[in-house]
Amino acid sequence: MMAPWHLYVMAGMYIIAGLMHFIKPKMYMRIMPLYLPNHKLLVHLSGIAEILLGIGVCFDATRKLSSFGIILMLGVFLSVHFYMLSGEKASAGIPKWILILRIPLQFFLMYWAYYYAYL
């Protein structure tokens, strides 16, 4: 069965987001919670994860595992979103209302990935 076009939109979104971890790493390091160690390594690892999971959803053999990997990754990333709500510096200059909207968006993205786990 041919995967729907919107699966490739989702895959491209994660691949591009992952590449941005290497193109603009400082942007991601600014929003890392202070309690996490080795921010640069974590930014690079999360970028690699996004790229590999984005590629993985494109193939029948790895789609289910990659979909659940995306859900897990987005769950972990929630800690960053909540951290960004903790103060002015942590927000990286993003308006609070956008930061608040990002939280339900994470759950929508989790559902979107779950949808493809059973194609």
TrEMBL record:
It comes from Flagellimonas profundi. This is DoxX family protein. The chain crosses the membrane at residues 6-23, 43-62, 68-85, 97-117. Keywords: Membrane, Transmembrane, Transmembrane helix. It comes from the Bacteria.
